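R.M. (postdoc): so does anyone remember the format we settled on? I'll just put the structure tokens first.
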């Protein structure tokens, strides 16, 4: 099974929508600050032109973003973006486009920046799956000079997607907001694919997927999560001893294979519990638990509520 297969299965499990909120058209000096995002929200920023310095206020780290860079903050950290000059930012003024997003501009005449800012919204309770298995900050580049001839490279497909987003956000045509939000949703998938394809994938699930020897295990768990997988089974798929497999998996992911399998099962169970016709017993069996009491215990530990409480909450939110 390929890396795309596991990614497709992951994204089938969780509901993700995207929304463009602001287009920033600034001359230096400029500065914008984002508060910590609400649970189930992931901010994103796309540099279409110019460059920006991103400062993560929680990890106390900073890095430069340039044209074609796409930044996701899966943990929703508070952050600041600025031009790096250290000068006081010029005043900004905003106006709402007819499509619904905001255009923020200033009158400064320094280096120009064109940046799209928005959010992804993750359906509960799957936000924990994203937080636990994606890095704090994730940056991919849509313009990859070294791989420009590879039309299948995710970075090149991202470049095409960004051009569509740039064009739509610059026009005022009917349906523009809906188109931009649909493109934002596709953006999430392509960013994860591009991140898993780079030679040194970031930590977490993406690093595992890009690890040629460990990829069979992750694909197998996503493909058949109800199967009673044992560590020797997964190690055999990867051509490793049990001890070597455990060490590599833990080093790359920061969690064990058993943790990942349990989280996959609980996310699938959360989806199944929304179906009125499915009993808790049937859901438990579907995700690999012969004991309903064991399923209830694990679900409650991972999700912070019982299966019955989650079912009622989901029904009320429908």
């Amino acid at each position: 099974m390929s890396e795309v297969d596991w990614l497709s299965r992951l994204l089938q499990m969780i509901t993700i929508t995207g929304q463009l909120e602001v287009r920033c058209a600034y001359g230096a000096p400029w500065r914008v600050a984002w508060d910590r995002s609400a649970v189930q929200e992931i901010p994103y920023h796309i540099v279409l032109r110019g460059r920006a310095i991103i400062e993560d206020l929680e990890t106390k780290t900073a890095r430069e973003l340039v044209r074609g860079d796409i930044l996701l903050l899966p943990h929703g950290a508070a952050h600041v973006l600025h031009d790096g000059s250290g000068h006081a930012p010029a005043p900004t003024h905003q106006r709402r486009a007819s499509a619904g997003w905001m255009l923020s501009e200033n009158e400064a005449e320094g280096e120009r920046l064109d940046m799209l800012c928005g959010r992804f919204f993750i359906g509960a309770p799957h936000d924990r799956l994203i937080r636990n298995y994606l890095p704090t900050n994730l940056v991919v580049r849509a313009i990859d000079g070294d791989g420009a001839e590879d039309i299948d490279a995710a970075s090149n497909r991202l470049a095409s997607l960004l051009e569509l987003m740039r064009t739509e956000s610059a026009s005022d045509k009917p349906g523009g907001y809906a188109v931009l939000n649909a493109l934002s949703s596709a953006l999430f998938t392509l960013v994860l694919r591009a991140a898993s394809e780079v030679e040194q994938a970031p930590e977490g699930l993406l690093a595992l997927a890009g690890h040629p020897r460990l990829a069979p295990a992750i694909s197998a768990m996503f493909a058949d999560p109800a199967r009673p997988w044992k560590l020797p089974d997964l190690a055999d798929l990867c051509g490793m001893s049990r001890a070597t497999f455990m060490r590599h998996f833990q080093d790359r992911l920061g969690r064990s294979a058993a943790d990942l399998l349990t989280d996959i099962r609980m996310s699938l169970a959360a989806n199944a519990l929304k179906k009125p016709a499915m009993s808790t017993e049937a859901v438990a069996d579907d995700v690999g638990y012969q004991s309903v009491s064991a399923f209830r215990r694990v679900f409650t530990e991972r999700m912070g509520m019982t299966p019955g409480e989650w079912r009622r909450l989901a029904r009320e939110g429908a």
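R.M.: ...and that's the designed sequence above, right after the tokens. Also worth knowing: The first helix runs from residue 3 to 13. The two ends are 35 Å apart (CA to CA).
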